[in-house]
Amino acid sequence: MSVEEERGDPASRDRQPAEAGLQVSRLSTGYRRRQICHDITLPHFFPGEVHSLVGPNAAGKSTLMRALAGLQRASGSVRVAGRELVGQSLDQWAQRVTYMPQSLPQSVALNVLESVIGALRASPSDRLALLGRRALERRAVEVLERVGIVELALESLQHLSGGQRQLVSLAQVLSREPRVLLLDEPTSALDLRYQLKVMRLVRAQARACNMVVLMVVHDLAIAARWSDGIVMLSRGEVIAQGPPREAITPATLASVYGVRARVDHGAQGDLQLRIDDVLDEGETR
Ligand SMILES: Nc1ncnc2c1ncn2[C@@H]1O[C@H](COP(=O)(O)OP(=O)(O)OP(=O)(O)O)[C@@H](O)[C@H]1O
């Protein structure tokens, strides 16, 4: 498949309701003694689109993701399909937003198939949650096939490698077909082949199920290749946002990551990045 075919296009924004997708404005969140994310307003993310949240370590990416999943107290506004979620119960959030965290506690004594069936049962969509046992099983097997791990179906979660567990988590969250899917470093434990397979799958699912995907990604080449838009975060603030070629530039890399870099965006979204040097404190702004 060519990169051009892989990119595909989400449904035209003009044909979608003005309230569709995810709208985040003036969101602040943090921990008891420390605010981490300050007054964050994101671009309007429409159904079918994939966006990447990038930025240095400790920038606040995971904190922001947890707040968007309703797992952390926040002020401001998070609207999904026009519905305000800030101040709502966790159940209300979970009906619209599914979150795959960075660390994957999978020590329960279930096999892979059972764990995906469990995720389907907990699905926000009645269409999925009310399926009978047989139909749930068929559907779970189909998701495992799509992710490429059907041969692990009867393995215990406890016996899987880190990368295999990451793929199972992905199968669980994809199976739920949420309106908004948040993925925190979805390819961090995966080898090169699975990185490509997973990114291809995530984008195809976003387009097919008309869901918004927002993922934390450290590898800027992966983010540029697979995302419709980039949000670059530093010290809990949005420093750059927009299509990859507008957000990932030598200037933003200098200011956010403190490096001197050469950036070459190819016509098909591919990104060549060469880091030449680490800048001194005074050179980064
Ligand atoms: N449970 C917590 N309690 C208090 N502070 C926390 C907690 N979790 C994270 N922090 C702090 O919040 C800041 C942002 O952390 P966060 O994990 O959101 O960053 P990140 O951008 O996801 O980093 P990384 O790329 O290293 O995963 C850090 O300074 C961190 O120490």
Automatic annotation (TrEMBL):
Its keywords, alphabetically, are: ATP-binding, Nucleotide-binding, Translocase, Transport
Alphabetical list of Pfam families matching this protein: ABC_tran
Biased composition annotated in UniProt, kind: Basic and acidic residues: 1-17
Q: Which SUPFAM superfamilies match?
A: P-loop containing nucleoside triphosphate hydrolases
Is the ATP-binding keyword given for this protein?
yes
Q: Which InterPro entries match?
A: AAA+_ATPase (IPR003593), ABC_transporter-like_ATP-bd (IPR003439), ABC_transporter-like_CS (IPR017871), P-loop_NTPase (IPR027417)
Q: Where is this region: Disordered?
A: 1-22
- CDD domains from the xrefs? ABC_Iron-Siderophores_B12_Hemin
Query: Transferase among the record's keywords?
Result: no
Domain (ABC transporter): residue spans on this chain = 22-260
The highest taxon in the source lineage is Bacteria
Q: What does this protein do?
A: Part of the ABC transporter complex HmuTUV involved in hemin import. Responsible for energy coupling to the transport system.
Please state what the protein is called: Iron ABC transporter
Native organism is Salinicola acroporae
